[in-house]
Amino acid sequence: MQIFLDTANIEEIRKAAKLGIIRGVTTNPSLVAKEGSSDLKGVIQEIASIVDGPISAEVLSQTPEEMIKEAEEISSWSPSIAVKIPVSAAGLEATSALSPKGIKVNMTLCFSVNQAILAAAAGAAFVSPFVGRLDDIGHNGMEIVSDIVEVLKTYQYPTRVIAASIRHPLHCVLAAKAGAHIATVPYKVLIQMIEHPLTEKGISRFAADWQQVGHG
Ligand code: G3P
Fold first, then answer.
1. Which long-range contacts (CB under 8 A, 24 or more apart) does 70-73 make?
2. Most-buried pick from 6, 23, 176, 201 (CB within 10 A)?
3. Is 63 helix (H, G, I), strand (E, B) or coil?
4. Angle at the Cα of 31 (from 25 to 35), degrees rounded to 5?
5. In angstroms, what is the span from residue 164 Cα to ligand 1's centroid?
6. 3-class DSSP state for residue 183?
7. Closest CA to ligand 1's atom 5
């Protein structure tokens, strides 16, 4: 499973990129707005200069025609762009028009297996089931991820499944076990994935033992 970072915070992206384990970045309008910037193009291009891999930027248009126009504009910002388009009737129409042109689409706000099947049929490069938001309303978000992975595999769709709306480290473990191709994680969750108290304790003990025999 590849790890993407789910943030528009440049400092977090720089720090995470240094680890060498980030294969892409996803943003959405809320994440960009949180950083206080209205310059989506500038933010996305800066992210693309830091991370080598797909960078998702979302359209805000509502009609298929406007979505297509906006997606074409966004995809011209960098060769790494995956345009995020919601799984709606308008979004499916736009994705079906964009995919044959070689524009990578990440169909977002996916909450069901049926929506994922339609995203794959429209030629989306990625589909993003939102795990945490399903859990929030009492559904098992990860079950949807697992079912989507299974169905897309059965019919050999090349669409890659991004487990999104990840809220804690256990979500990452379960996404990997469910066969998600990618988990897009907030920076805080990435740090939680790294840290373990026994690792910290072990590092301190090795250093202390080594010092006792006259080193350091
Ligand atoms: O990028 C989309 C998604 O990951 C949002 O997560 O926590 O706002 O549901 P959340």
1. 71/98, 71/103, 71/105, 72/98, 72/101, 72/103
2. 6
3. coil
4. 105
5. 6
6. strand
7. 165
Q: What spacing in Å lies between the alpha carbon of 33 and ligand 1's midpoint?
A: 13
Cβ neighbours around 52 below 10 Å, total: 12
- 45 in helix, strand or coil? helix
The Cα–Cα gap between 122 and 117 comes to: 9
Tokens of 154: 């059965």
Q: How far is CA 13 from CA 87, 155, 211, in A?
A: 27, 35, 36
Residue type, 195: E
pTM above 0.90, yes or no: yes
User: Which positions ≥6 away from 30 have C-beta within 8 Å?
Assistant: none
User: Ligand 1, atom 10: nearest CA belongs to which residue?
Assistant: 165
59-107 pLDDT, tens digit each: 999 999 999 999 999 999 999 999 999 999 999 999 999 999 999 999 9
Residue with CA at minimum distance from ligand 1 atom 8: 165
Q: How far apart are CA 56 and CA 13, in angstroms?
A: 14
